[in-house]
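Just scan my protein:

. . .
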Amino acid sequence: MIRQETAWVLFAAGLIFLVALVLGVWKWQQSIASPDGTAHRYVSVAHNAALLYSFATSAIVAPLVQFSGWPSAVNVTAAAAIIGMFVLTISKYARLGREGRTDNQMRDRRAGLRGVREALVVGEIGGTLVLLSGFASAQL
């Protein structure tokens, strides 16, 4: 039987995959409208990131949640941190693609980027460490 929190993680993975498909349509539309046949760099990055994050969520986060030895609340919090950071990142790339003002967010960075970067590190790596340790405690 699949755990309730695993079902929610898989649902989130499906939503991220759906977003990736929609971003792919946007990328395709930009590509066919462009004289050089390419979409804006960050439209492509958003599409690729969404595809990769959807698979990471379903292939790695969901099984770690399913087989973790931690209580549901711990698993949900860790998975939500990871997935939230994935969604935040995809959203940022899509916004950069929509605005079209830069092709390199690091070169043209704005104030506050460091705090966001630190939140990504804590959310993604910290959440994964929690789930991985819960998996190890229960399965190894």
In short: The chain has four helices and no strands.
